[in-house]
Design brief:
Elements lengths: L15 E6 L4 E6 L11 E7 L6 E5 L7 H10 L6 E5 L23 H25 L4 E6 L1 H12 L5 E5 L5 H7 L4 H10 L4 H18 L19 H5 L6 E6 L7 H10 L3 E6 L10 H16 L6
Parallel strand pairs: 4-5, 4-6, 6-7, 7-8, 8-9
Antiparallel strand pairs: 1-2, 2-3, 3-5
Helix pairs in contact: 2-3
Length: about 300
Amino acid sequence: MEKEIFAKRYSDHPEIIERLETSKGSKIFLKSNYPGEYPENGSVPLYLYEGGRKGTVLFFHGRGEKNLDYLRWFPENLAKHGYSGAMMILPFHFERTPAGHKSGELFLDPRTDVLRERFENAVVDGLTALNYVKRECPPPYFLMGYSFGGFIAVITAALEPSISGLSLVVTGGNFYHITWKSFVTGVMRVKYEEDGSCNREKCRKLHEVDYREFLNSLQKPEIEIGSAPISCFEYDPLTYAKFVRCPTLLTGALFDIFIPRPSTRELAEMLPDATLRWMPSGHLTSILFKKTILKGSIDFFERKCKGKSVL
């Protein structure tokens, strides 16, 4: 029986459903290759801002309801630096939000098997969008992930070795820190307390012993579904970090109550070629440093990545 590999068990071939032209760029709708349960996620909206010839950056936004316009600023402004930019709408967000739900809230489900599917959905769509960008836009190719989007960017970069550079902003790894220390995951903690399925001490022990053994056993980023002691190990960005081949800039926020500092530091330590920088901000107020973040990312790509694919 053939093994089922996280994200790689589905096609990543881009199939165009529709392309619309706007005053700022293009909006492409790709067919999602993930067989999800919600019809709103059957297509993958991709905002594309072409023009730069020095390379292309695919941007993954964060989780939430109101951050789209703020974060779309990044791909929109890449052309000023000579790059083309693209931003994929993640599953269950904005125009992909299923009826009866809020944007992004389905990623706060406490059921780890369900969350594994939703993370897999995001990565499959990310790989599909990346293949479309590689077909239409100039190389080299870079990924940029903000907050939750950083989780997806790390996994995508580990599974796609053609990425030349990675920029991560206010993100991290190790779901023990994020589940039990983050302000945003309080709803998950309440549900764990109600059904008794998990608690802080149990999770800590699992991550200190079982998770370390699982990480040490991995020789490649192709993770078999059901191979870990618990499902959440299979979609934690920390699981994939050591397989990221390209240089990575990780910019954290010193006063972040969403992504705890130990989570950011641990991710930086696991990435083979990472540069860690800190901003004097919180998670949400990091957007005040958007110009510094964008310029820092471009400078890093041009200095450290040298515009070359790692293949």
